[in-house]
Amino acid sequence: MTTHEVPPVSDLPSLDPDVDVAALRTLLDGRHREVRDLVRSNLAEHAGILEDAEVLDRAAYRERVRDVVVTMAGTGQTGMGFPAAYGGGGDLGASIAAFETLAYGDLSVLVKVGVQFGLFGGAILQLGTKHHHDAYLADLVAGRTMGCFAMTESGHGSNVQALGTVASYDVEAQEFVITTPDDASRKDYIGNAAAHAELAVVFAQLEVGGERHGVHAFVVPVRDGDRVLDGVRVEDDGPKMGLNGVDNGRLWFDGVRVPRTALLNQFAEVTPEGRYLSPIDNPNRRFFTMLGTLVQGRVCVGGAGINAAKVALTIAVRYADRRRQFEASATGEEQVLLDYGMHQRRLLPLLARTYALHAAQEVVAGQLHDVFSGPGPVEDGADEHARRMLESRAAGTKALGTWHATRTIQECREACGGAGYLSENRFAALKADTDVFTTFEGDNHVLLQLVAKGLLTDYAGAFEDMDQLGMARFVAGVAVDTVVERTSGHKLVQSVRDLLPGGDSWDQEAGLLDPNYQLAMLRFREEHMIAGVARRLKRGIDQGDDPGVVFSRVQDHVIAAARAHTERLVLEAFVAQVRAVTDDDLKATLGLLCDLHALSTIEADRAWFMEHGRLSSARSKAISREVGALCRRVRPLAVDLVDAFGVPDEVLRSPDLLGWTDAGPVR
Amino acid sequence: MTTHEVPPVSDLPSLDPDVDVAALRTLLDGRHREVRDLVRSNLAEHAGILEDAEVLDRAAYRERVRDVVVTMAGTGQTGMGFPAAYGGGGDLGASIAAFETLAYGDLSVLVKVGVQFGLFGGAILQLGTKHHHDAYLADLVAGRTMGCFAMTESGHGSNVQALGTVASYDVEAQEFVITTPDDASRKDYIGNAAAHAELAVVFAQLEVGGERHGVHAFVVPVRDGDRVLDGVRVEDDGPKMGLNGVDNGRLWFDGVRVPRTALLNQFAEVTPEGRYLSPIDNPNRRFFTMLGTLVQGRVCVGGAGINAAKVALTIAVRYADRRRQFEASATGEEQVLLDYGMHQRRLLPLLARTYALHAAQEVVAGQLHDVFSGPGPVEDGADEHARRMLESRAAGTKALGTWHATRTIQECREACGGAGYLSENRFAALKADTDVFTTFEGDNHVLLQLVAKGLLTDYAGAFEDMDQLGMARFVAGVAVDTVVERTSGHKLVQSVRDLLPGGDSWDQEAGLLDPNYQLAMLRFREEHMIAGVARRLKRGIDQGDDPGVVFSRVQDHVIAAARAHTERLVLEAFVAQVRAVTDDDLKATLGLLCDLHALSTIEADRAWFMEHGRLSSARSKAISREVGALCRRVRPLAVDLVDAFGVPDEVLRSPDLLGWTDAGPVR
Prior knowledge:
2 copies of one chain form a homodimer. In chain A, about 55% of the residues lie in helices and about 10% in strands. The first copy, chain A, is built from 24 helices and 14 strands. Chain A starts with 20 loop residues before the first helix and ends in a 9-residue tail after the last helix.
């Protein structure tokens, strides 16, 4: 590769903007500002629970969390997503915004809200019909009836299609009989199951007249008050790394009988005489359509991860702006941590990425609102396409958002030194509570495989409903030829040219701070990776290898392609947000963050770009220098940028880190 | 760069070795096998504390930990490093081995042992003289007297030279008066301070006749039984992220008087009439010599981090070898996790790196033993050189070992899915307890700066005793010219040629599995980075920039150079270990792991190697393929490789993950 002229590091301090914190916060809060402020004030009011979490024993903490959840339900905050007829707010978007904001506070409260209103309530709403809505929604929205979502089994985590619990239809009694055949099929990690749930939505293999119809959901009473009902066995999951205010447990069913109407029958029905009916013929498609209605949970968890990262950054950045350590100049005064280059490098790209993910989250939450608030029956093709796109985006954003939370909280903890280790400084609970976000609502790696599957089927121009084995087999099918043909040789080059506005070597000449350049880089990577996955899958199959072995070998490439795809969506969302801003200072502020995010994303994978001829070594080094320069430009804005997140002072705690006085933390 | 022929991915299944687990464990245990087995059986006996940690309240857990520590002290396990005359084992190497192995169990026990015998006992032993040894050692070795190590202050963490506590000499009374002048100078995070310590080794600014002589250590009684002594104020640090069995606290001293002999006077003395005497004239050098005797703590924490990672890997690898998830071949059976390429990629390079760090830890522990068991007074130049080398190696190994622990435990937790989140499966405590390892005994970034300082001074051929400002100023001094001269232009090329056995382009032709190639790559990176740091420092100073600003800009480069240096030491240690093995199977086994470690280390920084002309893009991709191939070859050995760590079954717990039966975990 020829070494092209490398643009100099940008150094335009005169352009550095003033941050209007209130205006920026309004922008970030978006159209659901009102509900976000409601949650903020609820969080401030119940901030004491953060301290209670450290001193109460597990049983008492669980009761405290339940009380807070029910109290919050009374303010309308948690029911935003349900129809007004049942006491809800009728605004799904507001429901997501409320949930995300709740992540500023105690995360057991957040997760219990997610279990009760998102998973349990969401299943009744989305998988049930009017009969179920009338029976349950009003009580569950008010928090009068607590429920759980009994999907995961000990032996079957991410592979929901392989669940072992059985619901067989007894045509005589017109009842379903729910049975746990073995310990691998016990329901496990089920929130609300150990103590509070009176009802469970149980996912089980439906069996009618000896024939299996796949996984369906049933409403099963499990408790009357505190008494566990006959035929149900409950075991506490015991102490957990975090979220100990949520009562996770295990459930076994020993021939528990429920009426025929207990089947949540939005997508399938069993008639009294034992006929199975569904508007969706293909069992795989039916299964994924059912699961798809639960996409809301993934959108919520992704947003919660991003907002938990905001709490950590707020504390770490404000601390780094106050704390002095080591003399570093001749004045004899110790230097503020955030004036150290290394400290800037540790925190500021994470801050920029938080803004980027926030923008991406706004897009996916908006799409969720539109798709689920729209009319259109589910069989409608256009609607189904939109749903699939949404599911893919939600899966990718959830994976990136929750990994970001884990990484950011860890880095912020370390950046606060030993003090970060004390519980009163928030990181202990933040770390422990968010750790499982990467696993629940779908393991991140499994979710990214889902994204990749969508990308490959998109390429092939057909919708396929595949489990993982299906994906491996898929490579043997006709579809892959389309993928390979579309992406190989000439076509790929053509496609890359399409991505680069100024021709084939434009990417080596464009300014590093040109968003078109940044986007073209991420688009090229995505296209190239997807094509590569398709070719590798095909080659393996053509060689006659076992599809399982082929898939296993390509798996890291599959995951990387899905990640690259989602990174591109995130950057596009952020660039679009910046472009839409009209205020000069705000635009400049977000533009700086967008550049820092884009270039540090490219920097993180610069090896790949060099390996694939899209970066010279000189340009690669220039990108690293530019990231450093951007960090220095963001540094004076850093405290304003975290203040704009609007995390209430009451939930920040951290008296020593933030230098609290009687009037609040030192600003 | 020309694209050279890229060697094919190795594929030599016929060479795959059988692992003799017992023989491998003997090799890993090394010369201190006996004490490691003593600790293993002590851990098994007290394994119940792992469960107690989840159910006892904080106060009770602390007492339980204290009891276990004192009981273990009775077996001789914790006193290995003290002279036999005081009831110790007289074998420092054995002491390190015992401590490391203790990391398989409850980590509050580990840290309390570290506080009592390593920090408190080590300070009395290394900084005190016979008077102090006679007065305290026998009781502290037996656990009859508990003590604490009061160095860190709230306002002064890593920068010990800036401590605020004052010890001023009252010549009339022949006493030191210990005073905490302000809240920033309160002692903080001090283990054993909140409940158990009767004595404290207090680090304070020594003032004699109005003149300051820098930080010195004093033995100060703080409690009589449970009663806090007059003039001492104690505050509990409260709940922490982990290690809640250790009673960390804060201490204030209000004019507390101790006799003149309370000064630990190995390196400095105050005569009755108030004359200050020290065999080391330079105050900076005296300070660093004093601190240097505490290097043992860093060696111990590094080893503990590595061993904690072994526990996590043992659980995650065994689980991945049993757990089936998703059908991936036509057999209809779900595939074992560890047969997935992605899962191999997640766990096996971490396993290889654990072996590499183990080898490096053996080297640094051996050097510690030799340096501290040798004769030679501390002023001896040769001895001082060895100490400085040891300190640098200990600092680097501690940083890499503890970061490795954080990363490995996290990856293993995620690789065990939701089950990894339950406390009985060990990850909760492992994560929470080890998290502070990256901070204590020196923040990892600060430690790597220490390493870098040593590298630069080594280059300059002189020993400098520098604080951080000194380091920034250093670039303005004459020394840097030597560095730059030695490393710039012609000289650097020469030096690189020296590193590459077969001439300048040998690195582009050598086999990827040639250890000389792997080492040459890491050596080149190290040399190049150090030279680059020196040049950047000099350029900044030559431009007349403020040294603090210059340092801040170069800081990430400084840290990277120190990391590169330590990575090279780690690989050298592992290669040397492999070379020394005579048994064919063991040699082949370790050789595989060494290749996997070396290539995944190069792969992780392949961007840098491409940027600096040491990897073509084709060769870079070949390295990634080779890492994948090595993972597949290590996979069948993986369970044996973790079993060789010899983590006792009793401390693994994880009944569901490991499939325990009455006879123990399924193998």
